[in-house]
Write a structure and sequence with these properties.
binds 5'-deoxyadenosine; eight-stranded parallel β-barrel; alpha/beta
């Protein structure tokens, strides 16, 4: 069947998604156009910014792929002070970001939970202005926590949460994580977040050794079935100080293919989920200097510029070749804004830029 005929369908099934993910270069152009039209129709084409603050690289998990895994001795561990986080957040608000994303390694101890809660309350209080009457929008991305902690963070002002499942295939999940972590637990966390009232985001890595196109198609169907609001997906990139360093050659030989596959995944999620927010991730940019702009062309509508204070950026390398680690915050900011405008997209300044899907979901709940 022609790709055009598939793309005309209102509902896409597994075979259709597999077709999209295995499209050739000619077909990719058609898919890209259709994904962009879908974005335009359901969300508008404005780009939403979230200033990304990686506030701590201390992590209790030992994921085999990740550069800041617990056992990595090469990383010097840091946690920003409340004042440092606050300064960056205020800087974001002053520079017309409507939202920030606070990200860190996993820690569940009481000191950490109290600290995050306090930081959230303070950011909300200190970033209220005429332009942002309710303060900055905050996305939290600090891994698996218990229900009570998620509830406390929500009350303190975080209203979106990102927790990637990495892959919805149990066996593949187990191949890249130690015993202590499970897909089932992640799914439980995602459902807790939804229950509490967060806008919930998830995502997968693309190009994990052993991962198939069929599995990625099932990932997209998993997203649909669980009705998530936001997505962050990116290519897997090998880090040399991890147990998966042996894949370096294999992955770099396939990097062009993986890059395109990641763009096709963005398009597939846009076509299937329609009104959700999709981030064009830094990992895409690590593979290609124009990667993030490309992602926007395939239906992404969120960019998370790296605004972690310069002095510690080098300590938050989840993978190698992370771009912009030497830039000043102001330089990153100017570059990102220029890149977005260069491709003719407008930025949604001074606005939380929430997922339209979430609003629809709320309406469905209240009208029941
Ligand atoms: N390559 C690409 N993405 C990675 N992440 C962690 N390590 C890597 C890597 N080596 C992603 C995971 C995690 C997110 C914070 O970063 O998907 O959920």
């Amino acid at each position: 069947m022609k790709i055009n005929d598939i793309l005309c369908r209102e509902e896409l099934g597994k075979n259709d998604i597999v077709r999209i993910l295995s499209a050739d270069d000619e077909e990719i152009k058609i898919i890209k156009r259709k994904a962009f039209e879908t974005l335009e129709k359901y969300c508008g084409t404005e780009v939403n910014l979230r200033g990304l603050i990686e506030f701590s690289n201390i992590c209790i998990n030992n994921c085999y792929y990740c550069g800041i895994r617990r056992d990595s001795r090469e990383v010097s561990r840091y946690t920003l002070t409340k004042e440092e986080i606050l300064d960056t957040a205020v800087w974001c608000a002053e520079n017309r970001y409507g939202s920030i994303a606070l990200q860190s390694g996993d820690r569940k101890d009481a000191v950490f939970v109290d600290f995050v809660e306090d930081v959230l309350y303070t950011i909300k209080e200190k970033t209220k202005s005429d332009r942002l009457p309710d303060g900055l929008g905050i996305t939290l991305s600090i891994g698996e926590q218990d229900y009570k902690s998620y509830e406390r963070f929500f009350k303190a002002g975080a209203h979106r949460y990102l927790l990637r499942i990495e892959t919805s295939y149990d066996e593949l999940f187990r191949s890249i994580h130690p015993e202590a972590q499970s897909l089932a637990r992640r799914i439980e966390c995602l459902s807790a977040l939804r229950d509490i009232g967060y806008q919930v985001g998830t995502g997968v890595m693309i190009g994990i050794p052993g991962q198939t196109i069929e599995q990625l198609a099932d990932d997209v169907l998993f997203f649909q079935k669980n009705d998530f609001d936001m997505f962050g997906m990116g290519p897997y990139i090998v880090h040399k100080n991890t147990p998966m360093k042996g894949y370096m050659e294999e992955i770099s030989a396939k990097s062009g293919y993986i890059f395109k596959l990641a763009l096709k995944m963005i398009a597939a999620v846009r076509l299937v989920m329609k009104d959700v927010n999709i981030a064009s991730t830094t990992a895409l940019q690590a593979m290609d200097p124009r990667g993030r702009e490309e992602g926007l062309g395939y239906g992404a509508n969120v960019i998370m510029p790296l605004l972690t204070p310069e002095k510690i950026r080098k300590e938050y390398l989840l993978y190698e070749g992370k771009p912009g680690v030497d830039d000043l915050v102001s330089v990153t900011d100017q570059k990102v804004k220029a890149q977005i405008e260069e491709i003719g997209r407008k930025i949604n300044y001074d606005n939380w830029g929430d997922s339209k899907h979430f609003a629809g979901r709320q309406r469905r709940i209240t009208s029941r």
